[in-house]
Structures are given as C-alpha cells and as structure tokens.
Amino acid sequence: MKFHQIFAIIRHEWSLNLKNGIFWNGVVVPLIFILLSLYHFKDDILNLSENGLLHVIYQILPLFTFYFCVFYTSVLANEVVNDKSSRISEIMLSIVDAKTQIVGKFLGVLTLLFAHITVYFVIISYVSGILGFNIIKVLVLGQQQYILLLIISMILTLISCLIWTVEIGVFVNDKEQTFLAIMPSLFLTGQATLLSWYLVLNSGGEVDLITHILFDIPACAPAIGSVIITTLVSNYNFTYFEAYLTETVQLVFLWLMLKRAIKNYRVGSISNNQRHVLFRNWFK
C-alpha cells in the first residue's frame, strides 16, 4: 500500500460527500430533531438525577450507533455501486490495488464519522448547557472508561458493516439494487439495537455466571456484539475486561472478513455476473 494513494482516496471521500446535499441532509435533520427534543423535554430532564439521566442516555446510545452505521454504510454503498455501474471501479483497479482502495475508503468514512460525532458533541453540549443541563458533561466526566468502550465499539460495528457493504456492493451492477449492499448491516445492527433496548428496559442488576457466558458468546460476533456489549457493561455487572476480550475476538473475525472482502472487491470490480449478489460471495 502507498500512503499517498490512501490519502488521495480519503480526500476524495471527503470532497465527494461534503459536496453532496443528501449527505448534509442526513447530518442536519437528525441534529435538528435532537435539539428540538432537548428543548421539548428540558423540564423532565432537569428533574432527573444524574443516575436517571445516565439511564436515559444509555437507552439512546444504541440508536446513535445504529444511525451512524446505516448512514455511513449507505454512503459507501452508493459510492461503490455507482463506481461499478459506471465502470470506474475497473479503471481504478488498474491504477490502485484493491487493498489500498478499501483501506482508503474505510479511513475516509471513519474520519468523516469522527468529524460528524465531534460536531454533534460540541453543539449538543453547548445547547444543553444553555438549557440548564449539560448531558455531555454528565456522561464524559463520570464515565470516561465507558466513553472509550463506546467509541471502540462504534468503530468496530461500523467497520464490520463497511466490510459487508463493500463485499456485496461491488457485485451490484444496477443502482436500483443498492439497498442489497446495506441490507445485511441494516438487519444485524437493527436486531442488536432492539436487543440492547430490551436489555436496558429490563435491566436487573447482577446476573449469574451462566447468563454471562450466554451473552459473552454472541458478544464476540461482529456488529451484533459491539452493540450489545456496551449495554451489558452499563446496565449489568459485565466487566470492562469481558468487553475488551470480546472485542479482541471481533478484531480477529474482522481481519479475516477484510481479507476476504479485498479478494472479492478485486474480483467484483471487473465482474459482470448477474447472480444474486447477497449470496454470490458467500457460497462459491
């Protein structure tokens, strides 16, 4: 891999999306909804204790992870499918190898995500401070270790979704089938988010060893595990050691998935095969 090529792809990702009105619509509309919700429920929030406010935040955070994953996998899916349908991917493959392209695209999306989160962080902190409470301050000052786990989990979830999106999207020859590229990510993260909400709403404190094992096993699965593990740590007696152990296992899976995605990206970029794209790269 050549780093100047990776940086060029990252700049292309930024330029392509910052000039896209749909991208800005996906950034601004949720932010407006969040700010209006803060204003509407400000009296209820002011009456909450710090622990009560944290409990509310823990319910919302899985939804943020789901939103960011769906939003950025959609961004990448549209780009990959557009490149494939216009045959740009074939030209790019003759100039830049598949590994460099994928790493550059992923880093471009991840840096966009960090900028996105930072903007939300600053604006929500400022507005909530004006309204008489600072949600970000309550979360950050008392939960630094949890914030670190949350960021790592969000990154792992997004990377797993991006890998599936690229691996499937590169076999899509029709823009009308773009949804197929994000469907696995949408389904898995959606199921994990629903499970996280259920766990938060039915949190019962400490759990026994068998329950730990039953949850630790699926927590090792890419996308699903990194979403639910943050809820298990915040609402049950799961330790940070368990969380980082499961995410280490996820890294191993992600590495294997990435190697396969690079191979499929190389093949799919020049393929015109019309077989069902959801199963082409899993059942050969």
From TrEMBL:
Compartment(s): Membrane
GO cellular component, one term: membrane
All residue ranges annotated as the ABC-2 type transporter transmembrane domain in the record: 45-242
Topology of this chain in the membrane: Multi-pass membrane protein
Pfam family, one: ABC2_membrane_3
GO molecular function, one term: ABC-type transporter activity
Main subcellular location: membrane
TM ranges: 22-41, 53-75, 113-134, 146-166, 178-201, 213-233
Record key words, sorted: Membrane, Transmembrane, Transmembrane helix
The organism's place on the tree of life at top rank: Bacteria
InterPro entries: ABC2_TM
Keyword Membrane applies: yes
Name by which UniProt lists this protein: ABC-2 type transporter transmembrane domain-containing protein
Lineage: Bacteria, Bacillati, Bacillota, Bacilli, Lactobacillales
